[in-house]
Design brief:
The structure holds 2 protein chains of 2 kinds.
Chain A: E1 3-5, E2 10-14, E3 19-21, E4 24-26, E5 32-39, E6 46-52, E7 60-61, E8 64-69, E9 74-79, E10 88-96, E11 103-105, E12 109-114
Parallel strand pairs in A: 2-12
Antiparallel strand pairs in A: 1-4, 3-9, 5-6, 5-10, 7-8, 8-9, 10-11, 10-12
Chain B: E1 5-7, E2 10-13, E3 19-24, E4 31-37, E5 43-50, E6 53-56, E7 65-68, E8 75-79, E9 88-95, E10 106-107, E11 111-115
Parallel strand pairs in B: 2-11
Antiparallel strand pairs in B: 1-3, 3-8, 4-5, 4-9, 5-6, 7-8, 9-10, 9-11
């Protein structure tokens, strides 16, 4: 069974700063996806970024980028130029490629961006 | 282009009553997933359905919970004889079929169930 661990329950950062959210996972699979989802106070789950395990290049989406270390089973999210709207819960998630496509989520981390 | 639609957004039930949560997937999506989020927790997988078929229900409690995705109409998550521990946010997600699937799930806004 796969597990996803987010060891930092809460972080705060000043607007415009850079922050890194950590995530580790455990799996015996070789083909899988990793995701970061954002859950603002509205509670809707919003996909931030996705990484395919077979790709060595780290995914980037505007101010969001990941540091994917497959051997270390680490998948951290870097948010550059933090904005007030980035305040949310952030969840790291794993999905085995093929099979029933179910996501395994970490417990989440609360990020607060202060003005 | 409507996203995943869930209703009701909020539902209050007394212990012993039944709760029915509905989910309409995105247009063109044939795969539906239900997840439950307890307070201060991440989402936990419950069930994965395609039209008229349950593909994976490994996350569903053995009793009182059932799910369906009929040929016509929304997917329904049904909880019979609710207890206080069922209070949670229930999220539905959908994805397109097979070759269109990039591994991304599209989530609805969730249904928050409160059991008094």
């Amino acid at each position: 069974a796969q597990t996803v661990t987010q060891s930092q329950p809460e972080m705060s950062v000043q607007e415009a700063e850079t922050v890194t959210l950590s995530c580790t996972y455990d799996t015996s699979e070789n083909n899988y996806y990793l995701f970061w989802y954002k859950q603002p106070p509205s509670r809707q789950m919003i996909l931030v970024i996705r990484q395919e395990a077979y790709k060595q290049q780290n995914a980037t989406e505007n101010r969001f980028s990941v540091n994917f270390q497959k051997a270390a089973k680490s998948f951290s999210l870097k948010i550059s130029d933090s904005q007030l709207g980035d305040t949310a819960m952030y969840f790291c998630a794993f999905m085995k490629q093929g099979g029933s496509e179910k996501l395994v989520f970490g417990k989440g981390m609360k990020l607060t961006v202060n003005p | 282009n409507a996203g995943v639609m869930q209703n009701p957004r909020h539902l209050v039930r007394r212990r012993g009553q039944e709760a029915r949560l509905r989910c309409s997937p995105m247009k063109g999506h044939s795969h539906v997933y239900w997840y439950r989020q307890l307070p201060e927790e991440g989402l936990k997988f419950m069930v994965y359905l395609q039209k008229e078929n349950i593909i994976d229900e490994s996350g569903m409690p053995k009793e009182r919970f059932s799910a369906e995705f009929p040929k016509e109409g929304p997917s329904i998550l049904r909880i019979q004889q609710v207890v206080r521990g069922d209070s949670a946010a229930y999220f539905c997600a959908s994805s397109p079929p097979g070759f269109l699937n990039t591994g991304e799930l599209f989530f609805g806004e969730g249904s928050r169930l409160t059991v008094l």
